[in-house]
Specification:
This protein is α/β, with parallel strands linked by helices. The chain is about 30% helix and about 20% strand. The N and C termini lie far apart (about 55 Å). Strand 8, helix 7 and strand 9 form a beta-alpha-beta unit. The chain folds into two domains: about 180 residues, Rossmann fold (3-Layer(aba) Sandwich), CATH 3.40.50; about 140 residues, Rossmann fold. Helix 1 crosses helix 2, helix 3 packs parallel to helix 5 and helix 6 packs across helix 7.
Length: about 375
């Protein structure tokens, strides 16, 4: 059995790589990923390359996978009642009441209220913990059963998994199947849940998790195969790489010249002219940021996985501070948002910035 973690740069074609690799397998394959959008993108890529999804390949979101193979076959280990599906929650579930100093939550000893609604739907932030409980109670039968069903397990967007998800990953790495995990730790814009377990590995530290918590399990860490972008030109790759110097500089396989290529500072007074001339997608942190409503706009986090010829970014104050002084630290979410925004563009990135003529930022030209 071979376990592999592949660290992929933005635009490196990881979905194409994963799909082509899966198509080479004759045995059963599971491909799982966190978001519905990415599941659909994987299906779309199979149809684009192969015309259909091969009969031996199953594609599921992470929650669907856990519910089907971790919860339902083993729910009797923990309780007698039938689990009637899952309910998606954004925050912490299982609130008991609002106390004087904030909300009070049920503890795990009150397992019905802790894990389930009164209609016996399991909370999404507790589903991986429930699966881990079943794995422990059955002495590993959950992961053993999964590995008998699927000889090959591929996990896309591995950086989105957190908390007890990582414990499930650890169990599957020990199981009798081939594991391939692919993701970009620089693009952590979502988490499956916010759990204290393995909190130090949040924000894309999947390599550290494998090295520290799975050191007795053989797993290849591959940082080379998907380190070149097919989307961004080299100027865009080089500037985005400054946000995550620990991963080194991303290369490129995209060399088309359009006459307006690279990263540019755009003064606020020039924004309308820039929009009219280049028709970029406007990217902002949130909807309260003022933009030109005559042109398309999207939040930075929502643009993950998408590609545009050109983008125009409306940076936050902390992003601007980092641009002029890299010793200024960015919060992980902010850094990831900026990285995602920059790497959406094939040819040019405009950044709205009210600069003076003396300013000089490495890797960025002035629009005028």
């Amino acid at each position: 059995m071979v376990n592999r973690l592949i660290i992929a740069a933005a635009g490196s074609g990881k979905t194409t790589y994963l799909v082509k690799h899966a198509m080479q397998q004759l045995d059963s394959v599971l491909i799982t990923t966190y978001t519905i959008a990415n599941e659909l993108e994987i299906r779309k890529k199979f149809i684009e390359i192969n015309g259909c999804v091969p009969h031996n390949i199953t594609i599921q979101t992470w929650y669907t996978f856990l519910l089907q193979h971790g919860v339902r076959p083993f729910q009797g280990v923990v309780l007698d009642d039938k689990i009637r599906g899952m309910i998606l929650v954004n925050g912490k579930s299982g609130k008991k009441y609002d106390g004087k100093h904030g909300p009070v939550y049920y503890s795990e000893k009150d397992y019905r209220e802790f894990y389930f609604t009164n209609k016996m739907k399991i909370y999404s932030d507790k589903i991986s913990k429930f699966v881990c409980r079943c794995e422990k109670e059955t002495k590993g039968k959950v992961s053993q059963r999964i590995s008998r069903i699927y000889s090959n397990i591929y996990i896309d967007e591995i950086q989105d998994l957190a908390g007890y998800d990582l414990e499930i990953i650890k169990s599957l790495l020990k199981a009798d199947c081939n594991m391939m995990m692919v993701g970009d730790p620089r693009q952590v814009t979502y988490h499956t849940h916010n759990e204290a377990k393995y909190k130090k590995y949040l924000d894309g530290k999947i390599q550290e998790f494998i090295k520290n918590e799975c050191k007795k399990i053989e797993c290849i860490i591959d940082t080379d195969t998907l380190n070149d972008s097919y989307r961004n030109n080299q100027n865009i790759c080089s500037y985005a790489s400054q946000l995550y110097k620990e991963f080194g500089e991303t290369g490129t396989k995209q060399s088309k010249l359009t006459g307006h290529d690279g990263v540019f500072l755009v003064k606020p007074d020039d924004v309308n002219d820039y929009l009219e001339k280049f028709k970029p997608m406007q990217l902002r942190e949130k909807r309260t940021v003022r933009v030109n409503d005559k042109y398309p706009v999207m939040n930075m986090g929502e643009s993950k996985g998408l590609t545009y010829d050109r983008v125009l970014i409306y940076p936050t104050k902390t992003m601007k501070n980092w641009m002029t002084d890299h010793t200024k630290k960015l919060k992980q979410k902010t850094k990831s948002q900026l990285y995602v925004a920059i790497t959406r563009a094939r040819y040019s990135v405009g950044i709205v910035f009210d600069y003076n003529e003396d300013i000089c930022i490495e890797g960025i030209e002035k629009y005028r």
